[in-house]
Amino acid sequence: NAGVTQTPKFQVLKTGQSMTLQCAQDMNHEYMSWYRQDPGMGLRLIHYSVGAGITDQGEVPNGYNVSRSTTEDFPLRLLSAAPSQTSVYFCASSYSHRFQTDTQYFGPGTRLTVL
Amino acid sequence: GESVGLHLPTLSVQEGDNSIINCAYSNSASDYFIWYKQESGKGPQFIIDIRSNMDKRQGQRVTVLLNKTVKHLSLQIAATQPGDSAVYFCAEIPFGGATNKLIFGTGTLLAVQP
């Protein structure tokens, strides 16, 4: 199993540009999520999905859209990038979300810079 | 990534020594806690967890201690190795919460000196 994969690894955007961060998992996990990690702060949840066709907002959803058309893929879209979205983005998945002990597996991250 | 290590408290230890990393959690109603390890340029990795009805749990070379009275969590690493160099952070889930309710701490950078 490849686990959780993310592309691209690095990206530089100009303010106002749009892009999609890709995330895929091959573990048939029900739950997938997107976090952002900023210096001096803990990981913050952007959006999550409890299954194909179901998504919901996390703590910091503004400026981001998600969709979950398949169990495997959970792309994160930035519609109009802003410098405040400069961050490292992590995708994670777990077998389910119903139990606290459902371990989340994280991808390697995408480092995004918005100029 | 590398920028995660900036602005973080740092614990520097000698190879072979024991390390103790501390975490003050925020919610007295939290009942499940996790320690993660994040190596440079990689995503967080689960190390060990503990429920609030326990005060100690041991894994391979790692021990987590929970003091609910002062809302304090610690991670002890025995015989620290260079491969243990990473950012370590704790996370908590409030009572009744699920994975989408995880609250992450800011982390501590562990630097192992050879």
Task: Describe the structure in your own words.
Chain A is mostly beta strands and 115 residues long. Helix content of chain A is 0%, strand content 48%. In chain A, strands 2, 4, 5, 6, 9, 10 and 11 form a seven-stranded mixed β-sheet that branches. The radius of gyration of chain A is 13 Å and the shape is globular. The model of chain A has no long low-confidence stretch (mean pLDDT 95). With 114 residues, chain B is mainly β. Chain B has no helices and ten strands. In chain B, strands 1, 3, 4, 8, 9 and 10 form a six-stranded mixed β-sheet that branches. Chain B has a four-stranded antiparallel β-sheet with strand order 2-7-6-5, with no helix packed on it. In chain B, strand 8 and strand 9 form a beta hairpin. Chain B starts with 9 loop residues before the first strand and ends with a strand. Classes of the chains: A mainly beta (115), B mainly beta (114). Chains A and B meet through strand 4, strand 5, strand 9 and strand 10 of A and strand 4, strand 8 and strand 9 of B.
In summary, what is this structure?
The complex is a heterodimer of chains A (115) and B (114). Chain A is an all-beta fold.
Q: Output the number of helix runs of chain A.
A: 0
Rg from alpha-carbon coordinates of chain B: 14 Å
Q: Which geometry of chain A do the CA atoms define?
A: globular
- The portion of residues forming beta strands of chain A comes to over 45%
Key structural traits:
heterodimer; A: 115 residues; seven-stranded mixed beta sheet; four-stranded antiparallel beta sheet; B: 114 residues; mainly beta; disordered N terminus
Sequence-ordered SSE layout with sheet pairings:
The complex is a heterodimer of chains A (115) and B (114).
Chain A lengths: L3 E4 L2 E4 L5 E7 L5 E7 L6 E8 L2 E4 L6 E3 L9 E3 L8 E8 L10 E2 L3 E5 L1
Parallel strand pairs in A: 2-11
Antiparallel strand pairs in A: 1-3, 3-8, 4-5, 4-9, 5-6, 7-8, 9-10, 9-11
Chain B lengths: L9 E5 L4 E6 L5 E9 L6 E7 L4 E3 L3 E6 L4 E6 L8 E9 L8 E2 L3 E6 L1
Parallel strand pairs in B: 1-10
Antiparallel strand pairs in B: 2-7, 3-4, 3-8, 5-6, 6-7, 8-9, 8-10
